[in-house]
Every structure is written in C-alpha cells, then in structure tokens.
C-alpha cells in the first residue's frame, strides 16, 4: 500500500491510535502485533468505537472499505511517521541519555512553549513505536517538535534518528543503564553516540554540557551550542547551582528556584535553559517556565506525610542515577535520614556487582538507616545494624507497618518494576 495514500487518509483523521481503549472519533487505528496479543483482532472494535480507518496486516480480519491491508502494520506505522515528518518540515529536537531524558524533555517543552507552539513526546513513548506516534502527533501548527529517544541496545538510536531526522540533539549523559542490552558501559556510550553520528553526517547542531568529558570528546567535530558551570568558554555560563533539597540555578542576573530535587537535576534544568537561550526565549520567560514546572509520576517528587518529608524517585533506577541520588541525599541538612532502595533492573551479568557497590557505598555511614528491597540487594546482604535487607516488597511491607518515622527525610528510589511508591501507604 502506497505511503502517500495512507498519509492522505491519516490527514483526514483527528488522531492515530494503537489501543482500542483510547480510540477517538475519526481516528486512524493501526493494529500492531505484540508479544501477548494481536491487535488485528480489535479492528472491528476500533471501527465500532468511531475510528474512520483501520490498518491491519492479517487479511482474515478485513472488514470493508475502511480497512487498509498492509504487509506489516509496525513498518507501516514507522514509514507513515517518517513521511509525515518530511511532509511537515518542522525543526525537531531529539534527546537521549541514560538518566534524566523525560524530565529534561518536559523542561525543554515548558521553556520553548513560552515562545513557540511546541509538541513533545507524551510520557516516555520513546521507542520504535512511541517515536512514530510522537511524530504523528505533530501538526501543521506545530512550530518545534521535541522527541525523546530511548534505547536498550545498539542501533536503536540510529534507527530512531533515521525516522525523526532531527535538526538538533542533546544527550543528557552516559551512565550505567541497560547494561545487559548494550553489553557494558562502552556499549552504552557507543549506542547513545549514534545520535552524534547522525547529527554530524547531516550537518546538524548538538547541545553539549561542558561538564561531561564524554560529550565534549564525542561531539568535538559537530556544530554545537554549549553550557557549563563557571566556564567562560560556554555559550551559556551557569554561575551557581545549589540543592537543599530543591535545585537553585544562578545564571547572569537570574536566580532560578526550581521544584526539582537533587543536584542530579541541575543539568536537566541547565540544558532547558540553554536550549531556550538558543531559540530566543527571554530570560524572564525562561525563569518563569522553569520555576513553574512541578514534577509528577514518581520523578523526584517531594511528598509530605505527617512530620516526614519524602523524596519519591521511584520511576526508574540504574547504578548511575542511584549513586547520584544517594550522594545528594546524604548532603541534606536533616539529621534523621532514611533510605528505601529497590533493585535496579536490566543490568545483566553486572547486576550483583553493581548492587554490592551500592551496599558498600552506604555501609560507610553509621547515622543513616537504609532498607534494601529486592532479590538482587538481598543477595548483596551484609550484617550492619543500620542496614536492613528484604527479598521482596511484601516482606518489607510487613515490617514497615510497625515502623514509626518522625521528622524524617526519606528517600525512596528503585526501578519501575519495584513499584516502591507503594511504600507511601505505610508511612504516616
């Protein structure tokens, strides 16, 4: 089926969907096969719920003239997204990295939306399906598109860049994330740097953090716009950063007081500030945008329960983000500190070593109570009065019900699969 023809039908529709639970009237439904389901079976349901057209790749589910039969629905989605991106010809900023992608994307969006009609990746729809859906959400009214790209093995970022063809790029950092898929830290660096290779080959611009030697080295032959802390050679020179617990940024005559917790969020803010400056957003608009942003979805949220202040960072975790979260937490003023840390996933053969490293790091501190939850941390167990180890969340919750926290600052961090936000139910 001709992509140009499918695109003409797509333009007649109000939206595109791959989930019949979210069907809108006059939408285009694309039936994607998953590991546990075949969306072709939902084609009739999609039409009954108001979809104008459905794309299927199994002829046994053909219904009527509203059905478009293709060889592969996923490839059709991707080709349609690339065609639509080329059709719109709008500037696109792409970003990837081991930590902070989604927060940075949200910050860039709130800053640029002060001057432009922007559209950004919703949530973390940043893979081979999410990026096409993001591209298809852009319209002729969109002035700048912001596309988050995730990856857990090599060649993914390369593929996503070929789809989105970004004009600008930013890599938040190169950390210990998805080590299993990338085959180690060097694999992470190589995989994320595929964005640099694309931008270089197409004479595009990269935003770089001069504090990160890997970024500096990997992007040295590219057109760039930079930021740094007390670096006069940076295009945007950040004069100060503080966090206790909220991040405050000094730039020029500005003092930006954010609602983000932890020094590890400083570069996320700095990147958004820098990109705003590049695109001509005024200083006062940048300040207003960054100060108005309030995180949600378990990302560095500050939650008050009774006399306790809780830093809820339970959306994701890897050795890099875990280490910086702990380091920042240990610097806070409150004397009554408690940590509840959950397993870090997708580390492959490095898992036990990395969990043991976190335990060893915290074993040096006598005055901080730390509870480790999950089988990997439990396997790293050591005997120390201020450290507790639990194989499952259920066993931890049994003890947690009897624990009393008063005037404590509590860090909750773990991989998404640990769902440590459940801990909030047991803290009064």
From TrEMBL:
GO terms for biological process: cell division; cell wall organization; peptidoglycan biosynthetic process; regulation of cell shape. Residues 15-60 form the Mur ligase N-terminal catalytic domain. Its EC number is 6.3.2.10. One of its GO terms (cellular component) is cytoplasm. It comes from the Bacteria. Residues 299-415 form the Mur ligase C-terminal domain. Keywords: ATP-binding, Cell cycle, Cell division, Cell shape, Cell wall biogenesis/degradation, Cytoplasm, Ligase, Nucleotide-binding, Peptidoglycan synthesis. The keyword Ligase applies. InterPro entries: Mur-like_cat_sf, Mur_ligase_C, Mur_ligase_C_dom_sf, Mur_ligase_cen, Mur_ligase_N, MurCDEF_CellWall_CoF430Synth, MurE/MurF_N, UDP-N-AcMur_synth. ATP binds at residues 97-103. Transmembrane segments: none annotated. It catalyses: D-alanyl-D-alanine + UDP-N-acetyl-alpha-D-muramoyl-L-alanyl-gamma-D-glutamyl-meso-2,6-diaminopimelate + ATP = UDP-N-acetyl-alpha-D-muramoyl-L-alanyl-gamma-D-glutamyl-meso-2,6-diaminopimeloyl-D-alanyl-D-alanine + ADP + phosphate + H(+). The keyword Ligase applies. Residues 96-275 form the Mur ligase central domain. Its main location: cytoplasm. Pathway: Cell wall biogenesis; peptidoglycan biosynthesis. GO terms for molecular function: ATP binding; UDP-N-acetylmuramoyl-tripeptide-D-alanyl-D-alanine ligase activity; UDP-N-acetylmuramoylalanyl-D-glutamyl-2,6-diaminopimelate-D-alanyl-D-alanine ligase activity. It is found in: Cytoplasm. Signal peptide: none annotated. Involved in cell wall formation. Catalyzes the final step in the synthesis of UDP-N-acetylmuramoyl-pentapeptide, the precursor of murein. NCBIfam families: murF. Belongs to the MurCDEF family. MurF subfamily. This is UDP-N-acetylmuramoyl-tripeptide--D-alanyl-D-alanine ligase. It comes from Flavobacterium petrolei. The lineage of its organism: Bacteria, Pseudomonadati, Bacteroidota, Flavobacteriia, Flavobacteriales.
């Amino acid at each position: 089926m001709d992509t140009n023809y499918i695109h003409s039908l797509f333009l007649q529709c109000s939206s595109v969907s791959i989930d019949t639970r979210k069907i809108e009237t006059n939408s285009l439904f694309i039936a994607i096969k998953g590991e546990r389901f075949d969306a072709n079976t939902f084609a009739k349901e999609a039409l009954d719920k108001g979809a104008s057209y459905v794309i299927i790749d199994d002829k046994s589910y053909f219904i009527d003239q509203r059905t478009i039969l293709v060889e592969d629905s996923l490839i059709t989605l991707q080709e349609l997204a690339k065609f639509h991106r080329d059709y719109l010809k709008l500037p696109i900023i792409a970003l990837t990295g081991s930590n902070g992608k989604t927060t940075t994307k949200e910050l860039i969006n709130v800053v640029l939306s002060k001057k432009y009609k922007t559209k950004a990746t919703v949530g973390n729809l940043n893979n081979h399906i999410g990026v096409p859906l993001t591209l298809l959400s852009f319209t002729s009214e969109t002035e700048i598109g912001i596309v988050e790209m995730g990856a857990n093995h090599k060649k993914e970022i390369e593929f996503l860049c070929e789809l989105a063809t970004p004009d600008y790029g930013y890599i938040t950092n190169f950390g210990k994330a998805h080590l299993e898929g990338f085959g180690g830290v060097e694999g992470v660096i190589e995989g994320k740097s595929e964005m640099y290779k694309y931008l270089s080959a197409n004479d595009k611009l990269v935003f770089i953090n001069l504090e990160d030697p890997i970024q500096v080295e990997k992007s040295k032959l590219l057109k760039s716009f930079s930021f740094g802390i007390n670096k006069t050679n940076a295009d945007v020179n950040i004069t100060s950063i503080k966090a206790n617990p909220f991040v405050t940024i000094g730039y020029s005559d500005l003092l930006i007081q954010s609602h983000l917790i932890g020094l590890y969020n400083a570069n996320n803010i700095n990147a958004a500030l820098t990109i705003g400056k590049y695109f001509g957003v005024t200083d006062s608009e940048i300040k207003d945008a960054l100060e108005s942003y309030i995180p949600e979805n378990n990302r560095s949220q500050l939650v008050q329960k009774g006399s306790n202040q809780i830093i809820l960072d339970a959306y994701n975790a890897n050795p890099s983000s875990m280490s910086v979260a702990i380091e920042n937490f240990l610097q806070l003023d409150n004397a009554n500190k408690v940590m509840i840390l959950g397993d870090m996933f997708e580390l492959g053969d490095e898992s036990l070593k990395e969990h043991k490293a976190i335990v060893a790091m915290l074993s040096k501190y006598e005055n901080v109570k730390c509870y480790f939850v999950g089988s990997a941390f439990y396997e790293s167990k050591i005997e120390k009065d201020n450290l507790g180890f639990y194989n499952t969340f259920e066993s931890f919750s049994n003890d947690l019900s009897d624990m009393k926290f008063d005037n404590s600052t509590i860090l909750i961090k773990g991989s998404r699969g640990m769902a440590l936000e459940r801990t909030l139910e047991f803290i009064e």
